[in-house]
Design goal:
Elements (H helix, E strand, L loop, with lengths): L2 H9 L5 H7 L3 H24 L11 H29 L7 H9 L8 H8 L5 H26 L3 H23 L1
Helix pairs in contact: 3-4, 3-5, 3-6, 4-5, 4-8, 5-7, 6-7, 7-8
């Protein structure tokens, strides 16, 4: 299988793709590619939607914004993998961190659809359609992430659901405290 076939299988939520990717030497390449593209999509979206927040005379460096988008994507990827590993490990998952890092990175392709909506929401744009799209795209991204993490953690569906709920509640509370 090649990158495109594997990523289509990931996006279609095919269950057999994760054991194959986990045993492949390409998982690191897939991770770097997916997180890099996620950062580029996010950075480009900030370029488009963020201009309205700038003062008319403000300097604007598009390359810097794109680089920050990529940096943020890799930092968030590492942090998310660490949080997910912590909660899965606490409920009896595997002890190795690197499979979590790789599987979360490969599953980052599911977040490609949410990045533009997140950038738009961060500019303060409100409305039913953008928020509905953001919610739907995040739910889909989490649906892509769930089997990836379950494969990396070697957990049952029940235990994985508990770990997912704990992670979402913890991260949700953290974001709430940070935002307000």
């Amino acid at each position: 299988m090649n990158y495109y076939d594997d990523m289509i299988a990931v996006l279609r939520l095919e269950p057999g793709v994760w054991p194959r990717i986990g045993q492949s030497r390409r998982a690191l390449h897939y991770t770097v590619a997916n997180v890099l593209v996620l950062g580029l999509i996010y950075g480009f979206s900030v370029l488009i939607f963020g201009r309205r927040l700038l003062d008319p005379g403000a300097t604007f460096n598009p390359l810097l914004i794109m680089m920050v988008g990529v940096s943020v994507a890799f930092l968030v990827h590492g942090g998310a993998a660490l949080y997910i590993w912590m909660f899965c490990r606490g409920i009896g998952g595997t002890t190795a961190f690197f499979p979590f890092y790789l599987h979360v990175g490969v599953a980052a392709i599911g977040f490609w659809f949410a990045a533009p909506a997140l950038a738009l929401a961060q500019t303060g744009a409100r409305g039913g359609l953008p928020l509905a799209y953001l919610a739907a795209s995040i739910l889909y991204a989490l649906a892509v992430l769930f089997p990836a993490v379950r494969q990396a953690a070697a957990l049952s569906n029940r235990r994985m659901a508990i770990a997912a709920v704990l992670t979402l509640v913890f991260v949700g509370c953290l974001l709430y405290l940070w935002a307000f």
